[in-house]
Amino acid sequence: MTNAITGVRTVAVPVTDQDRAVEFYVGVLGFDKRLDVPAGRFGGRWVEVAPAGAATSIALVQADESAPAGTDTGIRLTTDDASALREELAARGVEVGELLRWEGVPPMFVLRDADGNGLVVVE
């Protein structure tokens, strides 16, 4: 195939307030803001955030009827120590689920952003 897909650039997370979402992902989770530019003729913005060095970013897109905020995003983030990160985020006021430990599966937990979007953190 000459026109093969070569990667995943970004995944979208619908948010109700892009500034609040940037504060959560950058200020609380420690992501880098990679892009924040006007987009479209309707006054919208294209905002991308990502963990330092990550190949794939998260686009914080304006929620609407077709893509409402407060969803399970299906996004899986990684960490070296799920238990320690879970405790740190909980202490910072982030809504986190219980630490799941299943035989043969890395430890993981769910976190919710300011709009209630669910992301899973996997060790």
Automatic annotation (TrEMBL):
Superkingdom of this protein's organism: Bacteria
Name of protein: VOC family protein
Pfam family, one: Glyoxalase
Domain VOC, chain residue ranges per copy: 7-123
InterPro entries: Glyas_Bleomycin-R_OHBP_Dase (IPR029068), Glyas_Fos-R_dOase_dom (IPR004360), VOC_core (IPR037523)
